[in-house]
């Protein structure tokens, strides 16, 4: 069967043998009932509360109240009370009659009827006709107990079947929830895959990060070691160079000074000796500062006329010390 759809305005495409117009979008009532049957449940309206309620009448009659109902997509609506009369009461035992609302496909209508039950010591209501396909589909509005030789039906004898969804029920939308199982199966599969990939990526990241850290740490350690070795070697070379310079310079000066000492008077010789001693002290101090990697110098204060050494109350020159940083 091809896809069916509706409803849309029809256009006349011709006429049949009886002169009736032929419509290109014509559909039958079955499609209309199918629409409601797939969206709205069978039953009667829950409001007002007496919608299609069956009440006791006079004698063996019952009165169905006004209301609206749906049976397999076909609706029934009545603004007036409908009265039906039950068959004469049995002379022995009781029976249960059933007030029925049914769709009649053969006669193309929704109709009401009383189906008479069978008298018995333990009577049961007649079965509803609900074939998968056929001419009828029935709902029960009420079960009515008719006692032996009864001439009047009381309200106590009427069981209201409207709230029972297996017999009638109240009209509700059929789409009362969404089946999300397929979506959640897909979502769970995605989550599991994402978690697995995340754990693999995290483990790989941890391994790579640890390896990178180890490599970086080794590089830094090697650099520091090389720097310390290079620094020690540089300091040693500088100290050796200064010592050699001191030795050569002092020997050369002593040789020169010996040649001129006899030519100088005692005052000049004494001054030269003092200058020489002062230079030796400064050279020794410089060597000490280089070996200890700590520089010392007197603190000076400038004024407008001269540069002065800062001293304490006892005229001791104030000296500043700082560590020397190799470039």
Kindly state the number of beta strands: 16
Helicity range: 25-40%
Runs in which pLDDT lies below 50 for 5 or more consecutive residues are none
Quick one: overall form?
rod-shaped
Strand content: 15-25%
Account of the 3D structure:
By secondary structure, this protein is α+β, with helices and mostly antiparallel strands. The chain is 36% helix and 24% strand. It is built from three helices and 16 strands. The protein has helices at residues 29-37, 181-261, 266-292; strands spanning 12-15, 21-23, 43-44, 54-56, 61-64, 67-71, 74-78, 82-85, 95-104, 109-115, 136-146, 158-160, 294-298, 300-302, 307-309, 319-323. A four-stranded antiparallel β-sheet has the order 10-9-11-12, with no helix packed on it. A three-stranded antiparallel β-sheet has the order 3-6-7. Strands 4-5-8 form a three-stranded antiparallel β-sheet, with no helix packed on it. A hairpin with a 5-residue loop joins β1 and β2 (21-23). α2 (181-261) packs antiparallel against α3 (266-292). The longest helix is centred in the last third of the chain and has 81 residues, at 181-261. It is rod-shaped, with a radius of gyration of 59 Å. It starts with 11 loop residues before the first strand and ends with a strand. The mean pLDDT is 81.
